[in-house]
Write a structure and sequence with these properties.
The structure is a single chain. By secondary structure, the chain is an alpha+beta fold. The protein has helices at residues 33-39, 86-95; strands at 8-14, 17-22, 26-29, 45-49, 52-55, 59-65, 69-74, 81-84. The chain has a five-stranded antiparallel beta sheet. It has a three-stranded antiparallel beta sheet with strand order 6-7-8. The chain starts with 7 loop residues before the first strand and ends with a helix.
């Protein structure tokens, strides 16, 4: 990967392609999301949903969401919101103290 992982706000599967979203641009990535999750620092990246892997250091805000879930506002210019799946919410609570 040419972009340092810490500069990626989140990875997302879109129409079968994995894309890396940075503060300025979006890139296609030549890896599956499972491969990225296995290869990246698990202290930095979290699987929010089946199709999204977020950089925990790039979360601007965490709000309660439907069915004990969470809605993340990312630190990009658009303030992109990413919902954490109900299934992943328990793991997220364990990763982020004070939730």
């Amino acid at each position: 990967m040419l972009v340092p992982p810490e500069q990626v706000l989140w990875f997302q599967v879109d129409d079968g392609l994995v894309k890396a979203h940075t503060a300025a641009e979006t890139f296609w990535v030549n890896y599956q999301l499972n491969e990225l999750e296995a290869g990246l620092d698990s202290a930095l990246f979290f699987r929010a949903r089946r199709e999204v892997l977020v950089n925990l250091s790039c979360i601007k805000e965490i709000k309660p969401y439907f069915k004990s879930g969470f809605l993340l506002t990312m630190a990009d210019a658009a303030g992109t919101e990413i919902a954490i799946s109900e299934r992943q919410s328990k793991q997220f609570r364990q990763r982020i103290p004070g939730l």
